Q: What sequence folds into this?
């Protein structure tokens, strides 16, 4: 019998961003109200005659891929699932107002477990001032899946895309980087020790900050408010979910510019630095590629520097260059490296 073999291309051959690009090629936008579709932290929808735009974003967390319930408390997981969506709304310079929550549960989960999860979700709703307005509930054959959609609002003139960075703009980042990744290393280490010897209690002492950064990240809603207060509209913005390197590449590619980052300017917390050395990891690599920081990476006009220079929560880490210069990291010793993204890729990571 003749059997026609159709071509098969593995997802891992193009990775997550390759796949999103591939999907987006067949998508056509037909509504005048769709201002921005695939390709930014959130989609932008305009209401004709309104002063404001609506932004919409969605993020899915899958057990065994994004979280491990052997060390992630359900309450924290619920909180984080909301925070990561609110963070994407912030990255558009918008304010989150509503979320919907969809869960798929296997019969391993009890009503009490679901209550724990929702206690975290509702705590985050309170913290970020968002209303839970709906969702979907279904069963799953393997563990827990949470998908949250967040809806936000912003004045039409205030929306910030990944594509607006211009030559000579300053590159800024909030908070510090690499801590969530180091928190994950600690949790994974204690899990391995526990597996080998269940009598050994986990030793998490002295790691509060980095564990909190991993287990209970916060969306930087107050930064968005502060920037408005200072009269600054970033030229481009993205939140740091996959790692600084991956995010600055998104800004540069979409803005058609290059960049120069300075290693000695990268904000790395002391504990992150110490633990990285203990794990024989380079703190700069953790900051560049660790991910899950949920800080905001943005570019500003150099004229706005005066307004921001005393804002302790923001660090200037480099500047935007012309496209031909490439995307570069100047190390402490003065050598120059091409920045490549080795951060989180859901389809490549084993
Ligand atoms: P973020 O890290 O900010 O959440 P992602 O990398 O997940 O952003 O997504 C980048 C862009 O691709 C977003 O605009 C998102 O809505 C879009 N996107 C991701 N997956 C899909 C998909 N399966 N179908 C259509 N659009 C997608
Ligand atoms: Mg994002």
A:
């Amino acid at each position: 019998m003749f059997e026609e073999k159709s071509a098969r291309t593995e997802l891992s051959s193009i990775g997550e961003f390759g796949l999103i690009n591939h999907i987006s090629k067949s998508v056509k936008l037909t509504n005048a109200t769709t201002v921005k579709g695939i390709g930014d932290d959130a989609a932008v929808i305009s209401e004709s005659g309104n002063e404001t735009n609506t932004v919409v974003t969605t993020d899915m967390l899958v057990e065994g891929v994004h979280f491990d319930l052997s060390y992630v408390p359900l309450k924290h997981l619920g909180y984080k699932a909301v925070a990561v969506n609110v963070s994407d709304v912030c990255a558009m310079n918008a304010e989150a107002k509503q979320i919907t929550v969809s869960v798929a549960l296997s019969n391993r989960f009890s009503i009490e477990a679901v209550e724990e999860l929702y206690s975290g979700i509702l705590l985050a709703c309170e913290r970020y001032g968002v209303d839970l307005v709906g969702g979907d509930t279904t069963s799953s054959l393997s563990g827990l899946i949470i998908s949250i959609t967040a809806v936000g609002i912003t004045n039409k003139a205030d929306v910030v895309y990944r594509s607006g960075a211009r030559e000579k703009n300053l590159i800024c980042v909030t908070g510090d980087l690499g801590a969530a990744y180091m928190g994950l290393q600690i949790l994974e280490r204690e899990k391995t020790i526990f597996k080998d010897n269940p009598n050994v209690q986990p030793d998490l002492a002295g790691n509060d900050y980095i564990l909190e950064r991993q287990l209970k990240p916060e969306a930087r809603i107050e930064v968005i408010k502060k920037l408005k207060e200072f009269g600054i509209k970033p030229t481009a913005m993205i939140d740091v979910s996959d790692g600084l390197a991956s995010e600055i590449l998104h800004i540069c590619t979409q803005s058609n510019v290059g960049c120069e980052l300075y290693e000695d300017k990268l904000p790395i917390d002391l504990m992150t630095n110490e633990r990285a050395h203990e794990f024989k990891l380079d703190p700069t690599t953790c900051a560049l590629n660790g991910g899950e920081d949920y800080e905001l990476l943005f570019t500003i006009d150099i004229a706005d520097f005066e307004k921001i220079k005393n804002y302790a929560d923001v660090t200037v880490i480099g500047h935007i260059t012309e496209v031909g210069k490439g995307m570069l990291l100047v190390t402490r010793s003065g050598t120059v490296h091409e920045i490549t993204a080795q951060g989180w890729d859901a389809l490549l990571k084993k």
